[in-house]
């Protein structure tokens, strides 16, 4: 009898542990519609993560899907911590704004004031770093170097070695490298490490109790592992040490904490200047995509509706769900979900090498197409053949078509993902 009571108690405790998997009002038609939509992709193992939805400032839907750790079959919970990638950047922007208000730094200051030996530092302003106009590359290291732990000062030394993409201030290029340099500048200007600045200026004012900056030496409770979707199904994402994204994509957080951040901006908890800088078109919106994790935040200024999506599975299902969750919140009629099932075929392209090389998109930047293990790859994106000159990739559910010129040589790539299309010209 005693053993039976212990077993019952254990089952009760396990049931309590599983409770955070979901929380939403069963009477909410919006919540039911969103739940049905997301479930279709989760059931196909194309979406793992958490979706949180709020209406009139109140959370009406919060649910977790998939695994935080697939090896041990540990499910994601609503309080699981995920990498939120570039949603880190507006947090860095809040810190900068507050330090400007405290007169510890100025937007027009030159980078050379804080890092005297930085190349062209006398031409780069703090505002250029914030607005992606410094010329610093988005990524400055080889993928294998991104597995090593760096201090912010050590990483800046790596950035110094990379050539600028253009004369500072003359163009705009989205740059995580630039934000990593900005994080180091904020440390120098304040005399405090970036993690402490986050806690003081971002997390504490918003009561974000489950957020922290990445540190590979620390055991992070409730952390999700990163995965990717490909033709074989769910696979491990490449190992990364996210210290190379300090200030740019280094924060780990929960869906609820990310929502608290958005609310704090709109409520003026970071000050009116921070609110003005972060709010565009009467809403705060931010997104992120790094390795196997993705994130999205949007809240109306009047809080009529808002939502957060965070995921530890690099998959194009994220974009489809995000687009349709927003459509549902807007009161639009949404078609039943269609889960992609591309037909991958044995490679019909005789010479894969003719597709390799450097391609540039005016919207996104540059990429290098290479061959790894007999498969074309663009960064961590694998291209699987679906026809002559045609491929499919799972990270954004992209149909990738190589276009030839009159002489039969590859001249560009047409990359079509749900809701987005880009042209990449061969260099």
Descriptive overview:
- The chain has two domains: 83-329, Beta-lactamase; 352-426.
- The N and C termini lie far apart (76 Å).
- The chain has ten helices and 23 strands.
- It has helices spanning 2-18, 29-43, 88-101, 126-130, 152-160, 176-190, 194-203, 255-266, 272-278, 317-329; strands at 22-24, 49-55, 58-65, 67-69, 74-75, 82-83, 212-213, 227-230, 233-236, 251-253, 279-280, 283-290, 293-300, 305-311, 313-314, 357-361, 365-372, 375-378, 381-387, 390-393, 398-404, 410-417, 420-426.
- Helix 3 packs antiparallel against helix 9 (272-278).
- An eight-stranded antiparallel beta barrel has the order 16-17-18-19-20-21-22-23. Strands 1-3-2-14-13-12-11 form a seven-stranded antiparallel beta sheet, with helices on both faces. A three-stranded antiparallel beta sheet has the order 6-10-7.
- Helices cover 27% and strands 27% of the residues.
- The chain has 427 residues and is α+β, with helices and mostly antiparallel strands.
- Counting DSSP H or I runs of 4 or more residues, the number of helices is 10
Low-pLDDT residue intervals, each spanning 5 or more residues: 1-20
Which structural class do the helices and strands define?
A: alpha+beta
The main sheet orders its strands as: 16-17-18-19-20-21-22-23
**Per CATH, what is the topology of the largest domain?**
Beta-lactamase
Major β-sheet, in short? 8 strands, antiparallel, barrel
CATH architecture of the largest domain: 3-Layer(aba) Sandwich
Could you give the distance between the termini? 76 Å
Radius of gyration: 23 Å
Strands, count: 23
Count structural domains.
Answer: 2
